[in-house]
């Protein structure tokens, strides 16, 4: 399996996991019924795919489950008992090892395993599942595990019937000794099913779109109505990037929504590489080698690095990856905000120009240095969008909708004045002088 290149900075920037006062994107999808499903879902979030076939297969599988509206057919309580029971594997002295579990534990554990195996067979045998082409391979793997000769007696047992001590002991030897590995494999398949059905339900509930994956060499991303899944009443935006125009230069005043848009875009592309539905009306994309964002880059106090130097180190890291021929999707929010305006201007033009010469990769750069746009406009590979601010008297209002071009909006002083900061400072000075 080929995985997408990314890092903790990107995962932190895109706020996938809960931290502080914000909930993560992972929480939206994490409605799994089992602990194993939850762990697998987190693994998927930390290891997106970079394989066209694997992404396409997972997307198709979840889409088909969503279309059927199937529910997870297992009880979480059965998993708790089965996992506790199967975790205690007898050693060479089997009789002594079995004493670690009480007779009640053995009874509940074997019954739970029998119940799960019977429910698994019933699930994969129903017509609504046998007709799922995208699930055929995984369904066949489960069927082969369940059809092992040693397990055939399991399916003749009355569901959740109380077993005699002799029968319990026989099944205990079967489950924890002879067929332990096969049963653990079945559980792993059920954890996968838990994730698929959960994500399918999220797609239906939130009306998320299933991305279309292309395998062309010409890298491109097309999004219609993309929005941030964690923002209530979020505004959707359309964007096309790639081909002859592989760089987007984004401008807009403070509070106009640039960072939220960048997170929306990065989140959608990242989730698409997981094979998951995304917060958009529609999406098409080609698979990249890596996704890297720099939205909330901290100072590196451990090496005494300022914010500006941290940006330089980040750029050096990306330059090294690009030099290896990697196709990357890169997002920089407020590039070079850690240095003075003159240096930021010159560096923004130089670096953005260099990015435009990497046609296999795509870049989205937001900046307050709108003057840099005049020079960058000479580069055919650079496109321009902005998030506008409309003044209602002295009050700025934001549409959060992308428009083509470069904004000249500068309303920082208006916001400062509306907040009454200068008045508070003046009054404080008067009180001190008095």
Automatic annotation (TrEMBL):
Q: Which domain of life is it from?
A: Bacteria
A Pfam family reported for this protein in Swiss-Prot or TrEMBL: MutS_V
The DNA mismatch repair proteins mutS family domain is annotated at 245-433
Mind listing the UniProt keywords for this protein, alphabetically?
ATP-binding, DNA-binding, Nucleotide-binding
Offer one example of a GO biological process linked to this entry: mismatch repair
Q: Which GO terms describe its molecular function?
A: ATP binding; ATP-dependent DNA damage sensor activity; mismatched DNA binding
User: Would I find Membrane among this entry's keywords?
Assistant: no
Which PANTHER family does the record associate with it?
Answer: DNA MISMATCH REPAIR PROTEIN (PTHR11361:SF99), DNA MISMATCH REPAIR PROTEIN MUTS FAMILY MEMBER (PTHR11361)
Its name, as the record gives it, is MutS domain III
Q: Which organism is it from?
A: Chitinophaga terrae
């Amino acid at each position: 399996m080929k995985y997408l290149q990314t890092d903790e900075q990107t995962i932190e920037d895109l706020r996938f996991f809960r931290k502080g006062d914000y909930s993560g994107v992972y929480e939206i999808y994490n409605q799994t019924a089992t602990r194993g499903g939850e762990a697998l879902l987190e693994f998927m979030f930390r290891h997106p795919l970079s394989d066209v076939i694997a992404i396409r297969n997972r997307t198709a599988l979840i889409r088909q489950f969503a279309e059927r509206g199937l529910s997870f057919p297992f009880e979480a309580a059965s998993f708790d008992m089965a996992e506790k029971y199967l975790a205690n594997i007898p050693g060479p002295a089997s009789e002594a090892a079995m004493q670690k579990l009480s007779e009640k534990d053995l009874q509940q554990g074997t019954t739970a395993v029998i119940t799960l195996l019977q429910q698994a067979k019933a699930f994969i045998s129903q017509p609504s599942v046998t007709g799922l082409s995208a699930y055929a391979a995984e369904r066949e793997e489960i069927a082969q595990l369940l059809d092992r000769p040693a397990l055939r007696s399991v399916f003749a047992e009355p569901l959740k019937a109380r077993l005699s001590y002799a029968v319990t002991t026989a099944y205990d030897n079967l489950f924890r000794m002879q067929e332990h590995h096969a049963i653990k494999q079945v559980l792993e398949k059920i954890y996968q099913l838990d994730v698929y059905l959960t994500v399918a339900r999220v797609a239906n509930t939130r009306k998320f779109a299933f991305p279309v994956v292309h395998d062309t060499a010409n890298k491109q991303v097309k999004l219609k109505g993309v929005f941030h899944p964690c923002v209530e009443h979020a505004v959707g935006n359309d964007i096309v990037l790639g081909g002859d125009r592989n760089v987007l230069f984004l401008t807009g005043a403070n509070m106009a929504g640039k960072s939220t848009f960048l997170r929306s875009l990065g989140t959608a592309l990242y989730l698409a590489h997981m094979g998951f539905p995304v917060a958009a009306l529609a999406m098409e994309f080609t698979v990249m080698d890596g996704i890297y964002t720099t939205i909330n880059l901290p100072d590196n106090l451990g090496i005494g690095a300022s914010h500006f130097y941290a940006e330089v180190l980040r750029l050096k890291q990306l330059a090294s990856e690009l030099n290896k021929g990697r196709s990357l999707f890169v997002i920089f929010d407020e590039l070079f905000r850690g240095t003075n305006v003159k240096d930021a201007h010159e560096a923004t033009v130089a670096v953005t120009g260099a990015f435009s010469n990497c046609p296999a990769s795509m870049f989205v750069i937001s900046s307050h240095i709108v003057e840099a746009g005049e020079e960058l406009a000479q580069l055919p590979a650079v496109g321009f969008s902005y998030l506008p601010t409309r003044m209602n008297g002295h009050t700025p209002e934001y549409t959060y909708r992308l428009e083509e071009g470069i904004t000249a909006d500068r309303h920082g002083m208006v916001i400062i004045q509306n907040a009454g900061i200068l008045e508070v400072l003046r009054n404080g000075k008067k009180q001190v002088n008095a």
